Amino acid sequence: MTSAESYYPDEPVKPVVKTSTIPGPESAKQIAQLDQVFDARPAYFIADYEKSIGNYIVDVDGNAYLDLYAQIASIALGYNNPALIKAAQTPEMIRALVDRPASGNFPSADLQKTIKQILKFAPKGQDHVWSGLSGADANELAFKAAFMYYRANQRGYDTDFSTEENQSVMENTAPGAPPLAVLSFKRAFHGRLFASGSTTVSKPIHKLDFPAFDWPHADYPSYKYPLDQYEQENSLEDDRCLALVEHLIKTWKTPVAALIIEPIQSEGGDNHASNYFLQKLRDITLKHKVVYIVDEVQTGVGATGKFWCHEYADIQPPVDLVTFSKKFQSAGYFFHDPKFVPNKPYRQFNTWCGEPARMIIAGAIGQEIVDKDLTAQVLRVGDYLFQKLEALQSKYPTRFQNLRGRGRGTFIAWDLPSPEERDLLLKKLKLNGCNVGGCSTNAVRLRPTLTFEEKHADIFIEALSKTVADL
């Protein structure tokens, strides 16, 4: 058990809101200036990261918000964490930042140690890692790995490429550029790049105006809540969606080489998949020789009370690839079958092959989580927070629809009746000192750091109660 005081003795006791509007006048001024050189339209306020500490983010107007959004779910340990500052000051970090090795051709003498540190926190059953630069990049790299693996199994891992393959690929045609597909799920979010964009189905704005692959999208289960009151209905929903997955694999116009799923769809509305559903997908992918990819970009690194969310399902045999980013501050994918290493060098390759500076930070984050047993804290605080939210749900049932995330740490969400009410709630929560995010059209999602405690939950519930009563 840890305490915010041990990390952050100077963390604020409670939020402080000095301005009557957010963004405040200084933030508004700086946003306008920034917009002249950078698209600042999405900015909520201008943060002062020097003054932000622990679970509080401070803006340039002096407002200090209890942060339950944490840089879009990407801050694991809080602001200005001393363990990460220490890691940032090491000679290894200086070399990684100043010399920025092109790790594929000129790997640093530090690289093996850095990778072994990351692998200490790999999902169960995974013992290899390939590094990338972002969550979308991690998924794109995983797709490449899956396609090469799929074709190697057809061709033979040690079989060389044919003359026809070498020639046709230069024209973007088969057999060198084979027609293959990745199956994803409706409401999914896997990134905003080209292949990842084709598997993203959460909001049109993510993918408008750029070409897309013609790939299938299955239905992700839509459960009724509370789960224990709708077991039969939810079981039927799982089986319906599983049947559709298998139908798409068997009938899609091109071979489905890979399937990618989030154990909890985050941007798409905090939609949960049951342990049964995730295991049955393993059975289906094995049956049809489809690569099984679990996207843990947002769910990974402790937020659900396990280091990796899909470990709740104890999927057997282990999935093929697990992608990561966000709270790990690094990116890439874990795997265990050596044949996911392409048969020739330079096939999975780029200038830097990841970011060694971020990999060092990832290792330090993982070590802090283990040393401080933060996953246990997340479970404890999550249960405490969920009970408080259930009490509010009883009082305001229309404003807390489909409350979900029980037993998944602080990875909690609920729906409001409309997008307008959700957006108004988030706006007023900031004025009451809490920075909270939404997802999908009308859901509120909680993404605090792993150092979030009961005292923080109490502050949030007080602010939330006041906000809901004022809607």
UniProtKB/TrEMBL annotation:
Its EC number is 2.6.1.19. InterPro entries: 4NH2But_aminotransferase_euk, Aminotrans_3, Aminotrans_3_PPA_site, PyrdxlP-dep_Trfase, PyrdxlP-dep_Trfase_major, PyrdxlP-dep_Trfase_small. It comes from the Eukaryota. Gene3D superfamilies: Aspartate Aminotransferase, domain 1, Type I PLP-dependent aspartate aminotransferase-like (Major domain). Keywords: Aminotransferase, Pyridoxal phosphate, Transferase. It catalyses: 4-aminobutanoate + 2-oxoglutarate = succinate semialdehyde + L-glutamate. The keyword Transferase applies. Its cofactor is pyridoxal 5'-phosphate. GO terms for cellular component: mitochondrion. The keyword Electron transport does not apply. One of its GO terms (molecular function) is 4-aminobutyrate:2-oxoglutarate transaminase activity. GO terms for biological process: gamma-aminobutyric acid catabolic process. Homodimer and homotetramer. Belongs to the class-III pyridoxal-phosphate-dependent aminotransferase family. PANTHER family: 4-AMINOBUTYRATE AMINOTRANSFERASE, MITOCHONDRIAL, AMINOTRANSFERASE. This is 4-aminobutyrate aminotransferase. It comes from Zygotorulaspora mrakii (Zygosaccharomyces mrakii).
